[in-house]
Amino acid sequence: MFQIDQNLLIDIVEEPKTLHRGVEYFTNDRVKSLRFYKDTMTFVANVKGAYLYEVEVDFDFQGKFMDANCTCPAYGEYWGYCKHIVAVLLKIKEKDRLGNFQVKHREENQAKVILEYFRIQQDKHRVPLQMEVTYEVEGASYITLRIGEDRLYVVRSMKEFIEKIHRNEKISFGKNFIFDPLIHRFRKRDEKIIELIEELYEHEKTLERNFYYKKRESLFKGKRVELTDKALKRFLGLLQSQAPTSEEGIKVKIFNNEYNNIKIYEGQIPLSFHLDQQEENMFFKMEYEGPLIPLVKDGEYFFTKDGICRIGEEIRRDLLPFYQMLGDNPSSKIPIDKEEQEAFLSEVYPVIKGLGRVETNKKLDERINTAPLKIEVYFDRSDNKITADVRFLYGTTTIYPFNPNEGEKEKSNRVVLRDIQGERRALSFFENRDFKVKNNKIYLDNEDSIYALVYEDLEELQKLGEVYYSEDFKAIEIKRVSSFQGAFRLNLEENLLEFHFDIEDVEEDELREVFKSLRQKKKYYRLKNGSFIPLEEKALMDIGELMDRLDIVEKDFHNKAIKIPKSKALYIDDIINEKGLDFVKRHKDFKRFVENVKEYQEVQYPLPETLKGILRNYQLQGFQWLKSLSQYGLGGILADDMGLGKTLQVLTYLVSEGEEKGGAPSLVIAPTSLVYNWVAEIEKFTPQLKAIAIVGSKSERVEKIEALHGYDVVVTSYPLMRRDGELYEQYSFRCCILDEAQHIKNPFSQNAKAVKDIKAEYYFALTGTPIENSLTELWSIFDFVMPGYLSSHHRFKNRFEKPIVGENDKAALRDLGRMIRPFILRRMKKDVLLDLPEKIESKIIGDLTTEQKKLYVAYLKKIKGELQEEIKENGFEKSQIKILAALTRLRQICCHPALFMEDYRGGSGKLEILQEIIEDTLKGGHRMLLFSQFTSMLKIIRPVLEELGIDYHYLDGATPMEERGYLVKSFNEGKGKIFLISLKAGGTGLNLTGADTVIHFDPWWNPAIEDQASDRAYRMGQKNKVHVMKLITKGTIEEKIFKLQEKKKEMINAVIQPGETLLNKMSQKELMELFEISV
Question: Which candidate, 1075, 1078, 1079, places its Cα nearest to that of 864?
Fold first, then answer.
């Protein structure tokens, strides 16, 4: 279940040695009391190091590693995880394989958590110990320890000391001092030294357990422990970096000589050199003061008169040949043979100048040529490789470093004093770039390395010396941005955009390959002539990113042009402006198209005479927007807030289209309840449009469909479109309009498939909530109005939905917003209806009755256990139906337990509150809409109203369409005080401005549906302030749903400001939290 493998362990540590130590800790059974908290997918363990450390590891519910922390000092000192965490992960892997986790729940282990906390706190109050470390050199390196509180005692057996620390056992140092790991504590520096000794001990024990291990002498020798070179370096590094004060040093014993307060420092050892020329003889002598003893084989640390000196790597390398002299008589002279003198002066003398002070006599000074180093490099190209001829010049002397047999020397026979450091820098340049040596020449035949050299590195080489190029080498050109040309134009003949892209001297077949390389995120493309196109230049990367966003592939290239749907023009224009792609031109027709769609308010399409003076200003703008889009063959989503008159804006557009173009009818597809509403609105506002409703029996519908061409507007419903789809196949409409387009939010539904088969010139969708549950719903509506604009559903999910919803990717969210913005017109009532009265929203919280509460708690305990078993057995995904049923039952208990218990007599707290609200509201002369998801709840409320003598109207899904119209008209004329409405049946399409109070008896998962229902009263024509009340039972699932809704709105609001349904998007953890007892 838990995803722990070698790759994870390698990724989470900073250095391989941390991984190895973690493996050793695991192997040595250092992980204690591993506990697993299933409710939070958290492991807690204690790991035995110098102290007992606590490790906590978190996984997600799919078993993927999330995070870990440890109480050890090393955890916070570097970015990677520590060895203790590695050991715990290995322990988890082992236990997971065996299937024997010790499962605990947080609440059951609170006592242990508290106990462990105080144990950790006790560390701070333990008795601090003094510890003296002595470093001894006697052939090998050793350390010894003395510890104590006031007086220090020798640790006589280092091995026993470590073993007892492991076991938390006491160690007696005589009658006056007993070391107890549970009482005493060491300083941080000392703790790290003990950890180092522990690791040596554990490593030795691990080797002993190995079958192939050949026994050797132990590192633990009584009171001393021997340090390997690697361990010694760590030890000295600890002393250097962890000393409590700059004044504190250590005790050192070297071959029975004792030195106190020795410090570790970085620098050079105190050396001086003498070179004497006497006639034809030359002598070399090295001198130093005091002891000078190398402590490790590679010379990184020396013991000197000033302390222990750590020497840098470059100086260490140069000092290596002189190590042997350090043990000899430092005052003795070393003769240099005559034939070696020139080489010694040329190559050794410059080096020793960097190691210490050098003294020479006058005769030697006259022999030395001190001309400065000049570097020359000659590049050439041969076949698929490049060659380099490197030369070092000192005055008239030329040295060929890769061909020692060549060279020119000055005639005076003076010895060149070579600049070894400068030569090394030049040679390092070629070594670091994979140059190979053959026949005394260097060459480069790797394409990546050639590109890096030509594109990136030559400038660096030019700082080192003079660089010359042959004509063949110069032909390796780097194509810069000035070589690129691009342009967008509108192809009016094909009604498409064309993107023309060209790179100077690059043929079309290679241009395709360039874009293929761009899409593959390659660093460069090499042309047939050997030149390079750097693909990581910002301009080209931006073009590549744009092509990727437009779903363009190399096969789309034709004659150096790419054809793109013109709907992408506004998105492209935004990208060009944002990225500053100055080399991409936009033709006049492209610019005009973008301007007209963006600035639709500036393009004045004539308003039909019969509608002048009827439309509000924002409705006029909506009409202009519809006209602008259809003028260019584009579709869109009119997503105005409920009650802003979307129908009137569309009818105005249809009249205008009919007056200008005549011809084919337009098709409106609406929910069943709104079919006659459309016909009524047409008769009221645009009687010049001849409309027909496709309803009735099959034969009646066939007859009406066959007569379509005699009408301007055809209205049908989603259910009938599913049945009659084939009858419409032979027709092509001027415009197809979806009302309440959320009916096609599921792209795989029959509704969506049926409407997307309709043939029309233009497509528009009307909806107040283009997103309810997921971004896929938005994609489905766009797939109707502009098929392909948001790519395939699979591509849309990977590019937008998963990053935005799963990863909170703000860049993807901005990019989606930029794509859809021109094609969604969304206005809110508060912004455009300034004369609309105020809407007040409030939450009324009440308690369950005593009997109701007992029932709620009992059911909650029962169902929680059942669901946990269900999820354990079948998995979270396959348990959704049972979870939904349980949540529904809890919501019903909150409303009234009688919804599912026939013999229940305990009353309902919420119903009691409702009666109070009704009485107060009606006394104030107000009229009310009362919504519930449960029709059975409305039926419980009806007799309560009848008993109170309150006149009311009732509407649910079973109410016939004709009766709905009568009830709405009757209520708006003032008949009835309360309108009881089923949320799903009456939440849309009704105009009930006769009410000024809205009550939601039970909260629905989707607050947008609730808003739609509230807007039956809060819409144009409302003259009174509207009060919306939501009844919530305290401490129950209803209150939790309300809080989750508030918390989760941000993402979808950023796209289009809709509501969202939470149930399908909640994690297992969030869903199970709904079943926690809070009442």
Answer: 1075
Asked whether residue 1 is assigned to any structural domain, the reply reads no
Confidence of residue 643 (pLDDT cuts 50, 70, 90): confident
Q: Which of 798, 832, 866 delimits the end of a domain?
A: 832
Into how many domains does the chain fold? 7
Query: Of 546, 569, 597, which closes a domain?
Result: 597
Give a three-class secondary structure readout of 946-971. Answer: HHCCCCEEEECCCCCHHHHHHHHHHH
Q: How far apart are CA 999 and CA 1013, in angstroms?
A: 10
Choose among 224, 291, 228: nearest CA to 257.
Answer: 291
* pTM for the whole structure: 0.54
The answer to whether residue 31 is domain-embedded is yes
Q: Contact at 8 Å (CB) between 621 and 629?
A: no
Residue 858 belongs to domain with CATH number: 3.40.50.300
CB-CB contact of 381 with 470 (8 Å) = yes
Pairing of strands 732-738, 759-766: parallel
Token digits of residue 643: 């009650």
Whole-number Å distance between alpha carbons of 657 and 734: 9
Per the CB < 8 A criterion, the answer to whether 755 and 994 are in contact is no
The angle, 0 to 180 degrees and rounded to 10, between the axes of the packed helices 775-785 and 810-820 is 30
Assigned domain for 1079 exists? no
Q: In terms of domains, do 402 and 543 share one?
A: no
Residue in the block written with tokens 């419409």: 728
Whats the size of the chain, residue-wise? 1079
Amino acid symbol at 59: F
Q: Cα(900)–Cα(847) distance, rounded to whole angstroms?
A: 20
Write out the two tokens for 790: 């948001």
774, 812: one domain = yes
Beta-strand pair 140-148/130-138: antiparallel
Partnered with residue 375 across adjacent β-strands are: 392
Highest mean pLDDT among 60-74, 292-306, 750-764: 750-764
Spatial contact of 508 and 556, defined as CB atoms under 8 Å apart: no
Residues 865 and 1010 in one domain: yes
Q: Which residues make Cβ contacts (< 8 Å) with residue 1027, sequence separation at least 6? A: 839, 840, 842, 926, 996, 997, 998
Tens digit of each residue's pLDDT (9 = 90 or more) over 649-673: 999 999 999 998 888 999 999 988 7
Backbone angles phi, psi at 172, to 5 degrees: -90, 130
- 691 found inside a domain: yes
Other Cβ atoms closer than 10 A to 705: 17
Q: Are residues 785 and 822 in the same domain?
A: yes
Q: What are phi and psi of 820, to 5 degrees?
A: -90, -20
Report DSSP state, residue 804: I
* In a shared domain, residues 723 and 820: yes
Per DSSP, 579 falls in state H
- Burial group, residue 877, by CB count within 10 angstroms (0-12, 13-18, 19+): exposed
Mean pLDDT across the chain, nearest whole number? 84
Nearest-angstrom CA–CA distance, 470 and 472: 5
* Local structure of 318: helix, strand or coil: helix
What's at 657, amino acid-wise? E
Q: 696: which DSSP letter?
A: S
Domain assignment of residue 32, given as a range: 6-123
E strand segments, 675-789: 691-693, 713-717, 732-738, 759-766
**Enclosing H/E stretch for 373:** strand 373-382
887-898 b/e (C-beta count within 10 Å ≥ 16 → b): bebbbbbbbbbb
Q: In whole angstroms, what is the distance from residue 81 CA to residue 524 CA?
A: 37
Question: What is the rounded distance in angstroms from the CA atom of residue 494 to the CA atom of residue 848?
Answer: 67
Does residue 64 sit in the same domain as residue 141?
no
Question: 1001 and 1016 share a domain?
Answer: yes
Answer yes or no: do 542 and 490 share one domain: yes
Confidence of residue 408 (pLDDT cuts 50, 70, 90): low
Q: Is the pLDDT of residue 977 over 90?
A: yes
How far apart, in whole angstroms, are the C-alpha atoms of residue 698 and residue 499?
Answer: 50
CB 716 within 8 A of CB 724: yes
